[in-house]
């Protein structure tokens, strides 16, 4: 699929790419698709959307489901089903088709005007009827209210064939010697025909009288146009009830209001070729006119160019798919072109995936049509000595210059400028010098906070880039450029404390590494102050010395760890001594502690006992509790051990139990005293 752009309008050519021959087997087609990249990447929107040699006319049915095309050789018609994205049927004909018309909403009623004066009717099953007109026909139109076919051609008469009665009616007599095209207005059914003398005659089918005449040949001649010969009418198209567009054989398009004999606007294609087709695009108020070389889209009010397309082969017919941005062309080649212009409208519903495809292509732009061409002006051609090629097929006119093949441009430039090699050599030398300059020490703006950490990250990033270039891997993102870690190099609270114990133990070789970085920091600060560049390495050592130093680092690792630990122990001893001195100097003062509510102070011995008990093993604690009576260990019948614990009671429960015990003892004493008194009284009575 090729993408071209003119006036910022993207045009997607869906039929670009190589096509495979029909006689190839499926196996060979699959093998070619595996080998050839161009065949694999092509988009085949409708399967086998082509003709054997040439396609002449293309139309879409009113329901939008079927696309019909005629061509040669042999003369045939092909119908494509858009719902199935493939060909529905193919019918061969006796002679070439000049034009055809689809009378029904689908493909069930078709009329073909053939070059041998034949008119052939086809129904859904195939050929239905064939008749002949007196003169060679060039175009025809269908009048729906009366079921009449109007044929124009190499005669001054317009032949009428009534399909309801099945017979020819009285023909219409015109003033023209020959007629080329005709059309019927879809609103009020006015019949118009374009003559070889450059005039448009309008007839009323109800009265069979001429009601108007437009002299388009005279109106097409303006101050800017150059015309050779008398322009005849080659294309005719109605738009609504009042507007009609007329195309001439000299390449002009005239837009008329039926109420006026003067054209509203005259548009020249500047190629001098007959206009083949005219279409209206109502969403953007555009007219799509085409000759055999170019398709132009322009505003019908101002005449300003919207965009244009130049296919490789000559154009025979243009068909705009209704209510969409899809355009199809029949041309002098086997393949029929399909273009998709998203600005004109959405993709048809049967190929809605085109919208997603074009969005992906816009995100990942690929090469355009003109990558193999070089744009040159007239002055460039004169400098190259190629001014004599203007007007030939080697140059394609475009805007204020020309497009030419890039290979031809390079050959001509080599011949015109023999010293181009010297310029190339100087450019290469300059590039080498720039590369060596880039390898020198470059001034780096380090952050205010954590300068050594930033320098370490920059060095590691350079090493990773070299490693990734060798391994062809992607570079990882840098912490200095990451917004999430930006505060670490701006806020002083995040400054790394290199004197802390954790940092020194985790980085035993930090002293040597930090010395190197401090040297580099000093060099960078000096360079910033002086504004000069040093060509030497920041460390001032050769690469061999660095490699030997890296090998010694492994041996010195243990020694550095031991030194750091000795230093840390000495620092801890000094700190302890300082604390002892401070304690001796400070006077001891009595401290008072408050006991919580509901608790009684016994002594400090209980807490000491608890601490001793917690230090003992589980076995010792179990033996002690067994002696105290809080634990009972016994064997079970199964052979396992069973332990029964007596939970210690709280202080409140213990007080309550003691009060109950005292109360019980008091009651016992009272009972004993009472029983003693009773016994003494009984004895006294006996003595009396």
From TrEMBL:
* Record has Repeat as a keyword: yes
Which subcellular locations apply to this protein? Answer: Nucleus, Nucleolus
Domain Nucleolar protein 10-like second: from-to ranges: 369-417
List all Basic and acidic residues biased stretches.
648-663
Keyword presence, Oxidoreductase: no
Q: Name the keywords, alphabetized.
A: Coiled coil, Nucleus, Repeat, WD repeat
Disordered: annotated span: 528-557, 644-688
Name of one Pfam family that matches:
NOL10_2nd
Domain called Nucleolar protein 10-like N-terminal: residue spans:
1-364
What ranges does the record list as Acidic residues composition bias?
528-538
Give the CC-aspect GO terms. Answer: 90S preribosome; small-subunit processome
Q: What biological process terms from GO does the record include?
A: maturation of SSU-rRNA from tricistronic rRNA transcript (SSU-rRNA, 5.8S rRNA, LSU-rRNA)
Q: Where is the NUC153 domain?
A: 482-508
**What segments bear the compositional bias annotation Basic residues?**
664-688
User: Which protein family is it in?
Assistant: Belongs to the WD repeat NOL10/ENP2 family.
Q: What is this protein called?
A: Nucleolar protein 10
Lineage from the top down? Eukaryota, Metazoa, Chordata, Craniata, Vertebrata
